Amino acid sequence: MQKSKVLFIGLGRMGFHMAAHLSKSKNIELFIYNRSKKKENEWLKRYSAKKFDFKNLSNLKFDFIITCLKDDLSINQITKFLIKSFCFHQKTIFIDHSTISLDQVEKLNKMLSFCQIQFLDAPITGGEEGAKNGKLSIMIGGSASKFKLSLPIIKHYSKSVVYMGKSGSGQLTKFTNQILICGILYSISEAFIFSKKHKIDQNRLYDVIKNGAAGSWQFSNRYLTLIKDKFNFGFSTELMEKDLRYVLKQSKKSKLNLKLTKEVHHKYKGLIKTKYKSQDTSSLIKTFI
């Protein structure tokens, strides 16, 4: 059986572990690239793959190009480099796991269509722990046939992969996910303040709520760390501010007034000017106290 030639770009908190899962497959010839060479070398000390170099391609052609990057600007720059490097063939599938704006999805589709490359917008959720354990949830927009061809690759680092429909549907689903998360974190923050004010034992509170109707992934995974005033556990305030900015940009186009999302975005916007910029999203509590 011929190996799939895969290029993985972006070894951040999520991509680092996603690429690690791919490196363990006997059916994949993996190449990796990261703008920070320190992080790239750290990955190569632990896992096996070939370094990708935009300046020395040796006529490489990939079956799958997978990106997991910070924002619109990052994915736009990388895609332009890839197009100039011509490291794909007509059957190449481009899978982007970044959370980006719908405008950027449209730009990528236009850029890649000139090269006859099929693009899948495939944002992820599940946190750093989900990436480590290969249990991410992935929502995908784009060609249904290319989605099916991509599944064996994507399943290496996911527990749930759902095809959402036409291009952009993945991002719209992720935006919905982020609206829900920001609302849950807002209510967790208020609940924390209320229960502390009334001197309720926080650990007992956690035990009684976690498996009840008010329980959630965010409550189960972040309330105890919030009690301990610890916030270095994954998806950062900076990234949430960016995601909610894209959500509000789209809601404005759709003539929707998302009041709670606006308020939470304003709070995160303030947080990214503080030491909590790189801390996890539960540090939202710091804007309440």
How would you characterize the overall build of this protein?
It is a single chain. This protein has 289 residues and is an alpha/beta fold. The chain has two domains: 4-166, 3-Layer(aba) Sandwich (Rossmann fold), CATH 3.40.50.720; 172-287, N-(1-d-carboxylethyl)-l-norvaline Dehydrogenase, domain 2 (Orthogonal Bundle), CATH 1.10.1040.10. The chain is built from eleven helices and nine strands. Helix 7 (169-197) packs across helix 9 (217-227) and helix 7 crosses helix 11 (259-271). The protein is globular. The mean pLDDT is 95.
How would you briefly describe this protein structure?
The chain has 289 residues and is of the alpha/beta class.
Topology readout:
Elements: E1 4-9, H1 15-23, E2 28-33, H2 37-46, E3 50-51, E4 62-67, H3 72-85, E5 88-96, H4 102-113, E6 118-121, E7 124-125, H5 127-132, E8 136-141, H6 144-154, E9 158-165, H7 169-197, H8 202-209, H9 217-227, H10 237-253, H11 259-271
Parallel strand pairs: 1-2, 1-4, 2-3, 4-5, 5-6, 8-9
Antiparallel strand pairs: 7-8
Give the overall pLDDT as a whole number: 95
Q: Counting H and I runs of at least 4 residues, what is the number of helices?
A: 11
Report the principal-axis shape: globular
User: Total domains, how many?
Assistant: 2
